[in-house]
Amino acid sequence: MADNFPQTAGSGRNVATDQVTYSGDTADVQLVRVVNTTGAEGSRVVTDKPVFQTEDTAHADGDLGVLIMGVRNHTTGSTTDGDYSAISVSSTGEMQTLARRDLQRIAVGVTGVTTATTAYVAGDQVGTQITLANAARLSGGSGTIVGATLIDQSDIIGAYDLVIFDSSVTLAADNAAFAISDADSLKIVALIQLAGAFDLTNNRVAQAYNLAIPYVCSGGTSLFAALITRAGHTFFTAGALPQVNVYVERN
Predict the structure, then answer these.
(1) What is the CA radius of gyration of the chain?
(2) Residue ranges of the domains in the chain?
């Protein structure tokens, strides 16, 4: 404890200070200790427990803390970024919160499709495995698939299925009958039937909306997908390959 120094105004009582060093300078600093007391006025006893806890310290019975109060507010707090705002509560004391709708559009060009000679028949796999990156906000995260589209720039497709997996699988070859192992079948999240395809003169679209398919990624943040054609059609035009769009709401 450093020396006491007199106040410059008032009764002349001394104020206790600790002499500490900041950036190489010694300065008199008034240290204030927040404590808990018990007992009647005049005979209070300091309870030697910290009011402020260190971050990531395990809770123990009897720990002290600072009460955080909310304000009844039926509109909003500050609408300016960076401003402080009181916690708002409802008329019955519940904290006002806003659900976060983290909607993401994951767009992936389909690779490995046939672009010459050999037509597809119903039940064929189309292209290679599709990686739907960042489907979860963290490894092993979850969410909900709410929609999917398949856009065909070659203007040839009919009905399609989109199979979603929670982790990578081994697929058959493009333009061969779709087939996966029993072990990989356990990774299926859903099979989405894409309605259409709807002919837009120069291109076509097959789609599925109003979905509510829950998923949990396994070992990462990606989902994986495969395409199955349910109607025979000719090969794709080089440079005009299909694209899959999957819409997810991440938790």
Answers:
(1) 32
(2) 102-250
What does the H/E/C string look like for 108-141? EECCCCCCCCCCECCCEEEEEEEEECCCCCCCCC
The residues facing 108 across adjacent strands are 244
Specify the fold of 102-250: Jelly Rolls (2.60.120)
User: Distance between CA atoms of 120 and 207, rounded to whole angstroms?
Assistant: 20
- DSSP reduced 3-state for 182: helix
User: How many other C-beta atoms are found inside a 10 Å radius of the C-beta of residue 32?
Assistant: 5
Tally of CB atoms within 10 A around 90? 12
Alpha helices in the chain (DSSP H): 182-185
pTM: 0.68
Residue 112 falls in which region: left (phi positive, over 0), alpha (psi -120 to 50) or beta = left
Q: Residue 25 and residue 68: Cα distance in Å, rounded?
A: 36
Q: How many residues are given for the chain?
A: 251
Report pLDDT digits (tens) over 170-198: 999 999 999 999 999 999 999 999 998 99
pLDDT one-digit tens code per residue, 106-125: 999 999 999 999 999 999 99
Q: Which residue type is seen at 242?
A: P
Q: Please, how many CA atoms are within 13 Å of residue 217, restricted to the half-sphere of its CB?
A: 24
Exposure pattern of 141-174 as b/e (b: 16+ CB <10 Å)? bbbebbbbbbbbbbbbbbebbbbbbbebbebeeb
Between the two ends of the chain, the Cα-to-Cα distance in Å is 52
